[in-house]
Specification:
Length: 435
């Protein structure tokens, strides 16, 4: 099935008599196989009978509230795409044609009142309140969306899988976007004109909505700032926190300088790093499928894979970047053997990790644990030093070229693989003993 239309309703009998035929006619013009799912929240005006008579599938919400109605509709939907809109005729059903044309450009298409070209016809108080809340949320949650509270959306079905919404009412709209964006799904907004509702009265309560949204925003902020967020590394590069922004930009400058000019670069554990985006011939690799999904929007070749079993032929790359990776996995010689295997003779290895021999790093780590204990969930399993890591790389035949530090705490090293036989072992680099 092409499209499932989900309509959460409470006492919308008159509006459904107009809306459902329009949706059916639209699907016919677009040649879409479709279904209309009316999720009823306890109507007493004949809504259920009217919807069923018009061919819609009527189900009762399984959890009270707007969020529960959406969850019920999503679970019932069978289409490759899922459309949600208000049943009060404030969302023009003919606008769905524009949204449908954009479905290949993004995983979620939002009919937006607040992008350029969008218009809303509602009371001044409601208009200003909505704009203010959306602006604050956009900033707090670092979301590139202007109309976070629009319920007029077209979703690719995959973006709605395994949702476990915590919200109860309209704050679920922001929650769905945050969860989907954190999983690497893309969002696009298309200008839309919002009209006053048709028959009946609104079920939204502005003050209650604001209070629910404020409570929800605290939890969503934690979700957005989790290390598992698909865009975590990218956002850190542009962070409003000066030390975080400095750290990531300093790392970017070092890595891109050493990797510049390479014709085939493998970035192991790249996440959503700007480093990978800046390298002309880079392939990004990470264990996180969500982060790789996020990076696809930049037309970068990416794959989900393990550094212990690199899915490439021998000598495939003339540069391998492995920064902020090795401290997160238990030490295994195989990781370094795999890097050596895929690197061409004469190739470069750029590797980075915190230097636990430095008091500066130990102090930074202690401070970070104290200020953001929930954010330090990705515990460092290995505590490398310049000497220990250097010894390992010498043992695997690499030749030391250069070191640089970030704030005298994070170590970045540039090594080369000898141009002669990959099986030969280079002499120990100066100043770097065995582990």
């Amino acid at each position: 099935m092409d499209l499932s239309v989900v309509l959460p309703v409470v006492n919308e009998c008159e509006n459904l008599r107009e809306l459902i035929p329009q949706l059916n006619a639209l699907a016919g013009r677009l040649h879409l196989s479709h279904e209309i799912i009316v999720v009823d929240g306890g109507s007493t005006d004949g809504t259920q009978a009217a919807a069923a008579a018009l061919g819609a599938r009527v189900v009762r919400e399984r959890r009270r509230g707007y969020a529960g109605a959406l969850e019920t509709g999503f679970d019932e939907a069978r289409g490759a795409y899922v459309l949600t809109l208000d049943a009060d005729m404030s969302h023009d059903p003919d606008f769905v044609a524009k949204m449908w044309r954009l479905r290949e450009r993004s995983d979620i298409v939002i009919a937006s009142r607040y992008v350029r070209g969008g218009v809303t016809y509602t009371s001044p108080v409601r208009n200003l309140s909505s704009r203010f809340l959306n602006r604050v949320l956009r900033r707090v949650l670092s979301m590139p969306v202007r109309d976070l509270s629009s319920g007029f959306r077209l979703y690719r079905r995959a973006a709605l899988e395994n949702l476990q919404l915590q919200g109860r009412n309209f704050e679920a709209l922001e929650e769905i976007l945050v969860i989907a964006y954190n999983r690497g799904f893309s969002v696009i907004e298309v200008p839309f004109t919002y009209f006053p509702r048709g028959a009946g009265r609104s079920h939204a309560r502005l003050i209650r909505f604001g209070m629910d949204l404020a409570r929800s925003a605290v939890n969503l902020w934690k979700v957005r700032n989790s290390l598992t967020a698909a865009d975590y590394e990218e956002r850190a590069f542009y962070s409003i926190i000066p030390i975080q922004r400095y750290w990531h930009r300093r790392r970017h400058r070092i890595i891109t300088r050493w990797a510049r000019g390479a014709h085939r670069v493998l970035d192991i554990g790249c996440g959503s790093s700007i480093d990978t985006q800046s390298l002309n011939y880079a392939i990004g690799m990470d264990l996180s499928f969500e982060k790789m999904r996020y990076m696809r929007r930049y037309a970068i070749p990416v794959l989900q894979a393990s550094a212990f079993a690199l899915p490439f032929r021998d000598q495939s790359f003339d540069c391998v970047v492995c920064s902020e990776v090795i401290e997160h996995v238990v030490f295994n010689e195989v990781l370094f053997e795999e890097i050596n295997r895929v690197l061409m003779p004469g190739g470069r290895l750029v590797i980075g990790t915190p230097d636990y021999a430095r008091v500066e790093w130990r102090a930074i780590e202690a401070l970070y644990r104290a200020l953001a204990p929930s954010g330090y969930q990705d515990v460092h399993l290995m505590h490398y030093t310049r000497e220990s890591l250097g010894g390992i790389l010498v043992r695997h035949g690499f030749v030391h070229e250069q070191d640089e530090y970030i704030a005298r705490a994070e170590l970045l090293m540039y090594w080369s693989k000898p141009a002669r036989s990959a099986a030969s072992v280079a002499p120990p680099a100066r100043g770097l003993g065995a582990a």
